[in-house]
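Quick one:
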Amino acid sequence: MQSGTLVLAALLMGNGIVFAQSEAEIRDRIVGTWKLVSTEQTLKDGTTRPYPQYGPHGKGFIMYSRDGYMCADLVNPDRPKWADPQHPTTEVKLAAAEGTFAYCGRYEIDAKNNRLVHLPEVATGRGFEGSRQIRPYKFEDGRLVLSGVEAIEPGVVRWKIVWEKVR
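Output:
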């Protein structure tokens, strides 16, 4: 009986090694361009909604390079169009800005905790520059899913952003 327990323990430990990915393996999977599939916020009452800023048809890209840089850009494609792109009004510019978010900088991979850490050097939201944006991740059906507990926005308990690699 004791040898059977040892064999089972060895198999379980072996499976853990098989499923654990190194930083290099994760980098190989994430490097490239990913297109936004969906954004989702889970509210305190359990209901879900797309991020209001990007609307139900949000568009965007996130790119990871092998040399450790990343860039993300998300927009609400339903934001007002500029009637005169050469001379937009202040109101139109503000509406466009409210439906857009981007940042770029270095990234780190925390393979042990399944987290990507974005380190924005430039951002449309000035508060993001120089910050550490922790992005828990998983790969699901060929997609990159970033999700976690919401700590800032009142009424929201979880967030999720799903990306699909551009082929």
